[in-house]
Amino acid sequence: MMGVLSGKAVILTGASSGIGKGTALKLAEASARIVFTGRDGPRSDETLATLRAMGAAVELVRLDVTSEADWARVIDTCLSRFGRVDVLINNAGDAVMDRIEKLPANAMNDLIGVNVDGPFLGMRAVWPHMKKQGGGLIINVNSVAGQRGNVNGSAYCGSKAAQLSLSLTAAAEGGKDNIRVVSLHPGFTLTEGLEETLCTQPQMLQPMIDSMIPIKLPGRPADMGDAVVFLCSDDARNLTGIEINVDGGMTAR
Predict the structure, then answer these.
(1) Catalytic one among 71, 82, 120, 156?
(2) CATH (one of 3.10.20.30, 3.90.550.10, 3.40.50.720, 1.50.10.20) for 9-193+220-245
(3) Whole-model pTM?
(4) How far apart are CA 216 and CA 195, in angstroms?
(5) Residue 153 · residue 176 · CB < 8 Å
(6) CA-CA distance, 144 to 52, in Å (whole number)?
(7) Active site includes 3?
(8) Average pLDDT per run of 10 along the chain, which is 253 residues long?
């Protein structure tokens, strides 16, 4: 994939670890120019150092996704460094999982702030610049949880379902300006956080995978990165308003 995104300027949120970091590494391999954000200071700095060691043109900007002022600063950084914004990847997100009667009253509002308001503000901030330059791509990283209900997921699934509707509506609006919008849905993915959670009970991992994933392979952050690189490439120029699942067949059942 070397060079397939050469010259393209990408904004990626939530890249300090997990799917975001895996995506950042794949973007760098494809020669994209990257402005990324992350909440975890040390991990964000580690991602920055790794990308620079790969020879990537990259900037790190601190971002609260619910802040219009922060979003303006991210966009300004990308424009001043690279002169344009070709791709926005709204990857930053949050989750709270519990039975509906045990969730705090503000659980839904808190998740809506990060999972819906954040992508909305990002799209709103980048939209006029993409429109002016003749088009662009927005990828909203969702979850299979945004497509169906899950036990303990009323707040999380609800917020992700709202994000999916936002993505589809934005795609319908963006077509006339050549602004594509795609919703990316990871399934069971082995991120650092999940591996840390499972490390005390590794015997649970394979039975969990066998029961959930038809192809019996867990997703890895690099798998999401590969899908993102394809979507950012010219080969995907006719893809918009769609849901792309990278889930090993989880949602085929």
Answers:
(1) 156
(2) 3.40.50.720
(3) 0.93
(4) 17
(5) no
(6) 32
(7) no
(8) 87 95 98 93 94 97 96 98 98 90 92 97 98 98 92 91 98 98 93 60 73 88 97 97 95 82
